[in-house]
Amino acid sequence: FTRREPNHGAPEPAADTLSxxxxxxxxxxxxxxxxxxxxxxxxxxxxxxxxxxxxRVAGQHDYNLNGVNRVESRGFQFRxxxxxxxxxxxxTRSDPPHFYIADPYxxxxxxxxxxxxxxxxDPADLVIGQPDMFRAQCNYPSNDANLPxxxxxxxxxxxxxxxxxxxxxxxxGNGRVLRFPKPFDHPSSLPRADLVIGQxGFTSKITxxxxxxxxxxxxxxxxxxxxxxxxxxxHNRVLFFPKTGGGYTTGMSAAKVFGQPxxxxxxxxxxxxxxxxxxxSPHHIxxxxxxxxxxxxxxxxxxxVFDQVLNNEPVNARAVLTLKSISSVRGVYVSPVTxxxxxxxxxxxxxxxxxxxxxLFLQGDFKADGSIPAGSAALAVVQDHYGDLYVADGxxxxxxxxxxxxxxxxxxxxxxxxxxxxxxxxxxxxxxxFGSETAVFTDxxxxxxxxxxxxxxxxxxxxxxxxxx
Length: 469
Known about the structure:
This protein is mainly β and 469 residues long. The chain has one helix at 357-363; strands spanning 21-27, 30-35, 40-47, 50-51, 56-58, 79-80, 83-84, 87-91, 98-103, 108-112, 126-128, 156-161, 167-171, 176-180, 195-197, 217-222, 227-232, 237-242, 256-258, 282-287, 293-297, 302-306, 321-323, 332-334, 341-345, 350-354, 370-373, 378-383, 389-393, 397-401, 405-409, 425-429, 460-461, 464-465. The strands form 10 sheets. Strands 1, 2, 3, 4 and 5 form a 5-stranded antiparallel sheet that branches. The protein is globular and about 85 Å long.
């Protein structure tokens, strides 16, 4: 009778603990209790004049879980109240190519082993930041935003994969960036980071603006082999950490700052006529193959483009180009294959496409040449090496847009003509070709009848594999 802590003061609930009970009903010798803050209903058996621990639970996978909407391996929580955030990264160098999604408000990162085989509703293959797919604690196991550790996360957002397949995570709620070595090569429960940037160690949390600390890292990008770029949205800046001596070190200092006159300022660009050397709550960032920097300047509805990273002064650098009128832009991505630029027009529920930097700069009007609608607020965007576009939106989902295909009669190659059943047709992407993974049917030992698979590729017509040349 003298205790009042939620869940007996523990970070996780149990079969005999409560947090914010709001209603109950008794029936058939059992008490059905709405345990609101634990997002569950407990069923307790009557034992004489009292009740024992719960014997059933609804709304959760187990008694020690309390996530919103039953956290599991198929869903994300990109939105919490008035906030909405997401992050994604593709490992194009791995075989098979891996895909990572930051799930900020479940305090975790989900990994998919082979993005080529992803289907709607598929579960993730790997989780970082939690010991399983059902928990959603900030800085597990403490569930305390002020107790960071080597394996827990708190509101992770930006993701990036380096040349070695290591996953870098902008752990926004802990004011740091973590590196997890090749997650799919080292599968384990609750993977541990091997390096931290933005803090002096895995358990420290200093959020003052300096060259070694940050308040809320959001976006990540590698500027070629030069170093790592990190946006710090609270301090209105982007930091550049050089790759010196062949690598990075825990607690290292940034060599350059974009958006500020020094490493200890957190100035905000003016609202009416924002300067091109200031920012306001920058979110995701990107770099092209020439190491130019692209910053989603969210507060000022624009993307700032800076010169190649090594050509900028250590402080107070000015943008060389600005993409304007992109409402509350949060995501930006530059394709290393085509150089095309993608930016989320977040408040208008769409994604803009711009031509590569040199074409954009020459045409002078800096306008988008295409757009793709999003289901709701577009939060992040990334593209894989096949040209597929991934868009995370405020509906707690990731939509995948595949490049268009052209199918023409193999005799006359006239476009926009219907194909007769049984005709020989040529099918190919509207953009880049399939690549080097091709095969010729006549190279097969027995080419006739025609094979329905070549180089691991099938073409389905009404769900039936078609014979291939």
